[in-house]
Amino acid sequence: MNTQKRLQLPWQALTKRTTGIGSQGTSSLPWHLLTGLILIALAYGLWYSTSLMSYEWRWNRVPQYFAYEAQDSQRAAGYARVEAIEKQGTNARVTLVGDEGAKQVLLVAHDSLQVSQGDDVSEGDVVGVTRHWAAGPLFWGLWTTLWISVLSGALGLMIGLFTGLCRLSKNPTLRDLSTVYVELVRGTPLLVQIFIFYFFIGTVLNLSREFAGVAALALFTGAYVGEIIRAGVQSIARGQNEAARSLGLTAGQSMRHVILPQALKRVLPPLAGQFISLVKDTSLVSVIAITELTKSGREAITTSFSTFEIWFCVAALYLLINLPLSQIANRLERRLAQSD
């Protein structure tokens, strides 16, 4: 007994010392300062690199690719005479009267008027323009990336769940087919799969490019999710299934109510990583002319010549999507861990 106590004393002392250090709270300020210095050094390195290329930053050109003030020309429907022009705030109400007395009323921006009262206009002549705010290409590219990611992710999760259970099935046919699917998809590049879906399967079945892109991403994600689900289910002790069966549950009920809930807690981090990767993989559907975020960025570069600015904005938008996903997954993981 005394020997046991003597052996425990050093460990107890070490625990007390460690606890004391933790309770006092070691200052992490120097490490935060070091992090800030590293980030500043990286920013300086980027600035210095662009200065060597004599690159001129043009951030003022970027906002118009998120939202811009569009102009719609208002034209005369036929030969007519400008009967009256009434100012209404920043707009002007123009009344045109044709030869047969037909009237056409146009509301245009006052500073865009191309006619005066008493002028004659012909069919197609521009009277003025109306202005309104419209979403830019980067905004629409972001929206396309979002809905493709959500739809293909939901389909991929369902496909992966079914595939993972088939991989564990006692039926040799289901097990073999699911294995072939997983190995075939994981062993070939996603880009090649998108081409096959669009140019071969899409042509034969007359599918749209959006359908082909979502289907390719869903099947690609499903193969990886299937392996994640399979590994998660196999990580649960067999005694859990045996205990559930001993309580009178069927094999399906045991899997649905006992095994899968525990497995999903364990596979949540890799599942979150897979869906974050899916958001970035959507950039590949641009090869079949789907204007998602990356393709929108390339198109914006061709008109703005602001290469670095646009790519930094595109990267920030992908980060804007993925950071909340990561935070939600971490919070959900902590909550599930507390429920054990």
TrEMBL record:
Protein name per Swiss-Prot or TrEMBL: Amino acid ABC transporter permease
Keyword Ligase tagged: no
Cell compartments where the protein resides: Cell inner membrane; Cell membrane
Sequence intervals crossing the membrane: 31-49, 146-166, 187-205, 211-229
Function comment: Part of the binding-protein-dependent transport system for glutamine; probably responsible for the translocation of the substrate across the membrane.
UniProtKB keywords: Amino-acid transport, Cell membrane, Membrane, Transmembrane, Transmembrane helix, Transport
Keyword presence, RNA-binding: no
Organism from which the protein derives: Metapseudomonas boanensis
One Pfam family in the UniProt entry: BPD_transp_1
Protein's membrane topology: Multi-pass membrane protein
Family: Belongs to the binding-protein-dependent transport system permease family. HisMQ subfamily.
Sequence ranges assigned to domain ABC transmembrane type-1 in this UniProt record: 142-329
NCBIfam families attached to this UniProt entry: HEQRo_perm_3TM
